Amino acid sequence: MNVLFLAPNYPTEMQDFTRGLREVGARVYAIGDGPVGSLSPKVQHALAGYRQARLFDRAETLGAAQSFGVKFDRIECLWEPFVELAADLREVFGVPGMTLDVARGFRDKELMKQRVEAAGLRVPHHARAKSAEEVRAAAERIGYPVILKPIAGAGSADTFRCNSREELEAALLKTQHVAEVSVEEFVDGDEFTFDTICIDGKPAFTNVAWYRPRPLLARTNEWISPQVVVLRNLDQPELKQGIELGHAVLGALGMTSGFTHMEWYRKANGEVVFGEIGARSAGGHLVDQMNFSSDVDLFREWARAVVWKRFEAEITRKYNVAIVFKRARGQGRITRIEGLDRFMHKYGKHVATEQLLRPGTRRRDWKQTLVSDGFVVIRHPDLEATLQMADEFGESVQMFAG
Predict the structure, then answer these.
(1) Residue 232: which residues within 8 A CB-CB, separation 6 or more?
(2) Is the separation of the CB atoms in 195 and 260 below 8 Å?
(3) Is residue 74 part of a domain?
(4) Are 245 and 333 in a shared domain?
(5) CA gap 70, 289 in Å, rounded
(6) Same domain membership, residue 245 and residue 167
(7) Which site in 104, 121, 169, 315 is 20 to 30 Å from 186, CA atoms measured?
């Protein structure tokens, strides 16, 4: 099986998806933005061929794909900006898989909500806007607070909660570079994910994670140490309607085979509301958390699902898994870390991995990356114990920069 994989090296988790493709027996051809020398050894070892091309340039990418001179059996991409490009190339080369129309439903947030709503599912009240006047009109019609976000964005980038006309005007100034936005009702409630690996539209694997706090709040307060918690028990009554919603959304949008990452809300009154969904894997090391929960390799199982239409891993959820991201105080380079040794001495056997930046390393821009200045992954069979350790890490471990 010849597989064309777009963006094999970045974001970093794509390196393991590339590895997974090779490990299930595919011949992997890839196109990426960087030169071959910039590829990680893991990626270089996995590839049968590579071309450098600007993925935002369709003609250049198409030419690079044609230059391999092989017949592709699959064309895949898990990086949000190029999901539609992969679907476009499938149609050009006559390769089975998600069509461009279906891919647009997963990418265009307004079209996405229209299709989900047409299936009778609850979505936030919403509107598409291409100008400041259209945004203002939509906000008045929907009612404050509203969320302003890019039509084709990912994560919480360029996303703002606006509680008033004044806050909306400030958000408009910050999103002038965004050509088209979605104006949405703000849904007040807990936020969860519904992640799947699908084969012909049917989930072979499912996952639910809980954001603590909601990403939009975490992205607007530097002092917060954001958490994402992969839940061991999916049979909790509080999750039932959200999981049912997720299955229905997959059908409404015509999912085929591959990873999906959906976000949904549970309001205080128990109502569940769709947020958004991507035909891709989650970022922020969430796939690693899923792996730690059941001691499996979902990078490889995704590859098996899209190449051979099989899923072979036995999923036995052993642990709840919390990732806690840290942000240093101050600017410049990391100067010291306080509390880490004490935490590791106390809870080290429950720490799956710890990847904080070390002193001397320049800190990252917390507004541009969820990973911030590093993270710890904690796992435990009991949810309350997991949350207690995650909270203690967030409070007792501090990083400083200067």
Answers:
(1) 293, 317, 318, 319, 320, 381, 383
(2) yes
(3) yes
(4) yes
(5) 36
(6) no
(7) 104
Other CB atoms within 10 A of residue 84 CB: 22
* Cβ contact 55:16 at 8 Å: no
144: its two tokens: 């404050």
Q: Is 368 helix (H, G, I), strand (E, B) or coil?
A: coil
Distance between CA atoms of residues 105 and 120, nearest Å? 16
Is there a domain that residue 119 lies in? no
End residue of a domain, out of 44, 77, 97: 97
End position of a domain, from candidates 135, 157, 185: 185
Tens of pLDDT, residues 37-88: 999 999 999 999 999 999 999 999 999 999 999 999 999 999 999 999 999 9
Domain with 88, as residue range(s), is 2-97
**Tally of domains in the chain:** 3
Of 131, 134, 162, the C-alpha closest to 148 is 162
Q: What is the pLDDT of residues 327-362, one digit of tens each?
A: 999 999 999 999 999 999 999 999 999 999 999 999
Full-model pTM: 0.93
Q: Which residue has the tokens 């970022």?
A: 283
